[in-house]
Design goal:
The chain contains 20 helices and 18 strands. It is α/β, with parallel strands linked by helices. Strand 15 (349-354) and strand 16 (359-362) form a beta hairpin. The longest helix is centred in the middle third of the chain and has 16 residues, at 271-286.
Length: 573
């Protein structure tokens, strides 16, 4: 018997009642029989499905959207957005259960704990969660500092998950395998909206739910290396797979030994690729023999990096200046137009083959190719997904990365996230499908709107708002300054050295001709190791404006914008 299955007003056939160790309410039986349904009667077990649905046991009603019945709302995932949903459900006095696949709150975030977010604390704490935490005496971090993933877990998610209002309702090591409805498959329509959800765990246990909020994220489902969206030939072979790392390895920390003194090929042209290239370049300064190749699918480095006024994701320009400095100085080898077709393991090394026949040899491959949603667990639910992004069709035009950055996405909530399956909502990073511009603050507003709708408060549900500054949380400026501060501390430099170095380099730029030459001149002036200076200049690339194109090695103009890493969280959530 499912842990949540208990005696209800109508429990189906007599056989079902006996299996559930329950008895039917006589009044419910009379009402159901009058409506043409068999409730606790003599029909055989094959009629359980129809009887259960006809009796309208529980669920989210089609007319009001309000949760009715004895079952909890199930939240999948105890990351930032999942726990925010729990906080809002508590405030709405709606029963809930959080199912987390990992061993602790924020388990996926902890895996990129070494990465610094590019949005400050003020945008990373949900309002309902803050109210619960502050009532318990929580001391909020400085709202203007930028946390790492580890900071987010330790200072926010874990304290939230252990509150008495939240903690007893969170189950860990409880991965979800599938979601369905009691007694109906995807084809059955009659009474569907009144049947409770069945959330099946990997253990085989079923948990019944009145509604499902899926905040499981996309961290566990990265995009493949294959340029056509399919795994490259050999990519999943066991010998080859051991040579491939996912996005954002901890190059300077826990994963250092895997990359020290080795040749790494980074595949991808997004923000996670750029952050990894910066870390590898710093490692190369510390560990002789460490070499880096950057392989991009596009034929132009400027197109891969972005930059300039035409870039729909202006943060790529900010990253692009720093990364192109690494390329121009010879510290990163760039290979463009490399559409990965196959990966093979040869004598403990990897060989990538492009569609045009070119090859690259590597000790390690880092697949910084982005993430995609996995809707497999909802295969028995009725979903209407955008064919390109994999989000709801209503949301797709609002978040299309060809048109929008995070700063241009208007607030959205229950109306944009509603599926043909009543009561099922994908939220957080998963709600964005393959669009990479998700922010935690956006996810917090999503679950606030949805929980208001589940409580029947449609005025609040449709009053969607997102309080962000004009640049603020979508800006790379604060993030790069924090990265500069971190790097200066690692190199044992005075905190003011990075800014002095940049100022001096800008002064030398008109006569030096290139950013690299200007940086070396500034390093000589300040008596800073030139290789360290180049690393700092790469991190500060967005502060150089080389739009005058004074040399053949001119860099793309830097623009302030988004830096995000998609995940069950990421740099932006």
């Amino acid at each position: 018997m499912s842990e949540d299955q208990s005696a209800g007003p109508c429990c189906g056939t007599a056989q079902a009642a006996e299996q559930a160790d329950a008895c039917c309410d006589p009044g419910a039986k009379t009402e159901a029989v009058a409506a043409g349904a068999g409730c606790c009667g003599t029909s055989d077990a094959s009629s359980v499905a129809d009887d259960t649905v006809a009796a309208r046991t529980t669920g989210v009603t089609g007319q009001t959207g309000r949760v009715d019945g004895p079952h909890s709302v199930v939240v999948i995932g105890a990351g930032p957005v999942g726990l925010a949903a729990a906080a809002h459900l508590h405030e709405r006095r709606l029963p809930f259960t959080v199912l987390e696949a990992g061993p602790s709150a924020g388990a996926a975030v902890a895996e990129w704990g070494h990465v610094r977010l590019f949005s400050p604390w003020r945008y990373n704490v949900d309002h309902a969660a803050r109210r619960l935490l502050e009532a318990a005496g929580w001391a909020a971090p400085d709202p203007e500092t930028l946390p790492t993933g580890a900071d987010l877990v330790e200072a926010y998610l874990q304290p939230l998950a252990t509150l008495p209002q939240i903690g007893p309702h969170v189950r860990y090591d409880a991965p979800v395998a599938a979601i369905g409805r009691v007694g109906v498959d995807r084809v059955k329509t009659a009474g569907r909206e009144y049947a409770p959800f069945v959330v099946r765990l990997a253990t085989g246990q079923d948990v019944l739910a009145s509604a499902v909020i899926d905040a499981s994220g996309t961290w566990r489902t990265p995009n493949v290396l294959g340029a056509n969206g399919l795994p490259a030939h050999g990519e999943t072979d066991p010998q080859t797979a051991t040579l491939i790392d996912g996005a954002l390895p901890d190059v300077l920390g826990a994963d250092r030994d895997r990359f020290s003194g080795r040749h790494s090929v980074v595949v991808g042209a997004g923000h996670s690729a750029a952050n990894t290239l910066l870390a590898l370049a710093e490692l190369a300064e510390q560990e002789p023999g460490t070499t880096i190749t950057w392989a991009t699918r596009g034929g132009s480095v400027d197109r891969a990096l972005g930059g300039g006024d035409a870039d729909a994701l202006p943060g790529r320009g900010a990253l692009g200046t720093g990364i192109k400095l690494l390329v121009d100085s010879g510290r990163v080898r760039l290979v463009t137009g490399f559409a990965v077709h196959a990966v093979t393991a040869v004598d403990g090394h990897a060989e990538l083959t492009a569609a045009d026949g070119r090859t690259l040899a590597a000790d390690r491959i880092i697949a910084a190719t982005g993430f995609r949603p996995d809707h497999t667990i909802a295969a028995e639910l009725r979903l209407d997904l955008d064919p390109a992004l994999g989000c709801t069709r209503t949301l797709a035009p609002l978040i299309d990365p060809n048109e929008h950055s995070c700063g241009t996405v208007r607030p959205h909530g229950v109306d944009e996230l509603t599926q043909p399956e009543p009561g099922y909502f994908a939220v957080g990073m998963k709600s964005y499908g393959r669009a990479p511009t998700f922010l935690m603050a956006t996810g917090y507003e999503q679950v606030r709107s949805i929980t208001a709708a589940l409580a029947g408060d449609w005025t609040a549900a449709r009053d969607v708002q997102l309080d962000l500054p004009e640049t603020g949380v979508c800006s790379a400026t604060q993030g790069y300054q924090a990265m500069l501060d971190d790097a200066a501390a690692r190199y044992g430099l005075d905190p003011d050295i990075p800014n002095r170095l940049i100022s001096a380099a800008l002064r030398h730029l008109p006569t030096a001709g290139t950013v690299a030459a200007a940086t070396r001149a500034a390093a000589d002036e300040l008596r800073v190791d030139p290789d360290v200076a180049l690393q700092l200049a790469a991190l500060a690339g967005n502060q150089f404006d080389t739009s005058q194109d004074t040399t053949e090695a001119a860099l793309p103009r830097a623009e302030v914008g988004l830096v995000a890493v998609s995940s069950g969280g990421g740099c932006c959530g």
